[in-house]
Amino acid sequence: MRFFLVVTLALSLAAPAQAGNWADDPEYAQHAEFATSRRICDQLRRVELPDAKRPDRREQGGMAGCCSEALYYGIGVPVDAKAAFACAQLEADDMFSGDMMLMTMYANGKGVAVDLDKAVALACVGTGAPMEIHYRVLSLTQRRGVTPTAEFHWCDDITSGLNMGWCAAHAARFDEATQAEDVKAFRRHWREGEAAVRLEALLAAAKNFVSVRGNEVDQSGTARAALVIEAEAEVRRRLHDDLHDLAGSQMRLAAAATDTDADAELNRVYKRVMAHDFGEYGGAPSPAAIRGVQRAWLKYRDAWVAFVKAAGPGLPPQAVINLQTRHRIAQLLELLGETP
How many Å apart are CA 121 and CA 123, to the nearest integer? Predict the structure, then answer.
């Protein structure tokens, strides 16, 4: 999926529009750039839609506790578009449920026949930044009479930092479902003796590191939720990638064994970060926060060393120290706006 940030327009960072039809929003009636989407919404205002004020009825019937997002995208459960459609009709309207998912299914023809009138009409009464609603209405309308090259996704047209957070969380749920299955496989692979004990200790240290990683991310802007989610997801991805490497070819560990510069470079970069002026505005990374994250990382690194020793890959402990140190260097450089 792609995230569009229209930074040149102040409207793109405006608060989400109030519930109601986009065609009737008086605040933006004088903005000529919105005329086309507002006209489209006015033309479709009579399209029959689910009651926007319907209660959450998920406690009733066989769909109790269902999640249309999970069913539609196959997040932790098999894909079942028809069940997703039935579920979305019962859900309270919320992010990645209810009307948002119905819009997606009507646009893509999964779980229900394609109905662009309903998809666009749902976009017209949805929430979002003004430019976001405008783009979404137009992009759905442009699907008429053509064979789309890609499926519609609600996140394709976001323009606000707030919704970047929702979309980042949506993407993270895919990773977390896959990673949950990975953990089961890792536990089967290292199921005996000290290796099993050290694996659990590593997973616990990783969880702690993930929980504090966002503390050193710049949270001063509207995209703060997305940035924190991505920082946390990056730690989890590297953990799982490195465990896969250890269980398989061990190429990463083997290459890291000859890295003689990692520790010295970490010290240099860490000193630069601690000396950097991130500003005193709310949400800016602080030296205290960065030190706290660094302490959590050191415990995480040590848990890796203990696990590798127990797992017995035949590699020196320094190899995993070097590998994890390189990961940490990349994180610290990111705080400075640099890449390794």
Answer: 5
Instruction: Specify whether the CB–CB gap between 259 and 326 falls below 8 A.
Output: yes
pLDDT in tens, 292-303: 999 999 999 999
Taking CA atoms, 63 is separated from 15, 71, 112, 288, in Å, by 34, 11, 17, 48
**Residue 308 to residue 312: CA distance in whole angstroms:** 6
Token reading at 136: 């979404």
Q: How far apart are CA 201 and CA 193, in angstroms?
A: 13
| Residue 59 Cα to chain centre, angstroms | 28
Please give the C-alpha separations between residue 284 and each of 5, 189, 214, 288, 338, in angstroms, as whole numbers: 21, 42, 11, 11, 17
pLDDT score recorded for residue 93? 64
User: Strand ranges (DSSP E) for 54-149?
Assistant: none
Q: How far apart, in whole angstroms, are the C-alpha atoms of residue 304 and residue 319?
A: 10
17 and 127 Cβ atoms separated by less than 8 Å: yes
pLDDT digits (tens, 9 = 90+) for 277-288: 887 656 778 999
Residue 94: other Cβ atoms inside 10 A: 12
Residue 102 in contact with residue 122, Cβ under 8 Å?
Answer: yes
Residue 289's CB is within 10 A of a number of other CB atoms, namely 17
Report the distance separating Cα 246 and Cα 185, nearest Å: 13
Q: What is the DSSP letter of 239?
A: H
**What phi and psi values does residue 159 have, to the nearest 5 degrees?**
-130, -5
Which tokens sit at 182?
Answer: 């990975």
Q: List the structure tokens of 294.
A: 């660094």
Do the Cβ atoms of 137 and 124 come closer than 8 Å?
yes
Q: How many H helices and E strands in the chain?
A: 13, 0
Note the helical H segments in the chain.
35-43, 68-73, 81-90, 98-108, 116-124, 130-141, 161-189, 193-213, 224-247, 251-256, 262-275, 287-311, 317-335
**pLDDT-flagged residues of the chain (< 70):** 1-19, 51-62, 64, 92-93, 280-282, 313
Which residues, in sequence order, are CB contacts of 328 under 8 Å at separation 6+? 266, 297, 301
